[in-house]
Design goal:
38% of the residues lie in helices and 13% in strands. With 144 residues, it is an alpha+beta fold. The strands form 2 sheets. It has a 3-stranded antiparallel sheet. Strands 1-2 form a two-stranded antiparallel sheet. A hairpin with a 5-residue loop joins strand 1 and strand 2.
Length: 144
């Protein structure tokens, strides 16, 4: 790409997924010093799903680099954590920018139901699922 970013490849719709090298810019510069992503000051959960809106896709060329990459990556719903990992951005930067994009109507945010996230049985199933994945030698992890 002309702006120095490279593309990972096309998704099923033929859209290029952005691949961005780790940023040398300090996170507080990207967010203009803001650390609280919401007016309440509570962080957006990392499992929050976000997806670009039609307005966001139309505004792609007018967005800052990081905002552009977030919208481009969110053609399909993704979690805040997935976006941070894919774009190699600090998790709190993605939280702040996602809230800015939501407020501008360029990103739809779907916060998980809090009752489900505090259910111990869900956590137990996740732990059991992770233990069922063999390590690099093909050995299953011990259970307790």
């Amino acid at each position: 790409m002309a702006d120095g970013r490279t593309s990972r490849g096309a998704d099923e719709d033929g859209h290029q997924e952005p691949v961005v090298p780790a940023s040398a810019v300090r996170p507080f510069l990207v967010t203009a010093g803001r650390v609280a992503p919401t007016a309440s000051g509570r962080p957006v959960p990392v499992e929050t799903q976000v997806v670009a809106t039609a307005a966001g896709l139309e505004a792609l060329d007018r967005l800052s680099f990081e905002q552009h990459d977030i919208i481009a990556a969110c053609r399909q719903p993704q979690s805040i954590a997935e976006i941070a990992a894919r774009l190699r951005l600090h998790l709190n930067v993605v939280r702040v920018l996602a809230e800015d994009l939501r407020a501008a109507g360029q990103l739809a945010v779907h916060v998980p139901h809090t009752d489900a996230t505090h259910d111990a049985s869900v956590l137990r199933r996740v732990i059991d699922g992770l233990r069922a994945i063999p390590d690099s030698r093909g050995v299953l992890r011990d259970t307790d």
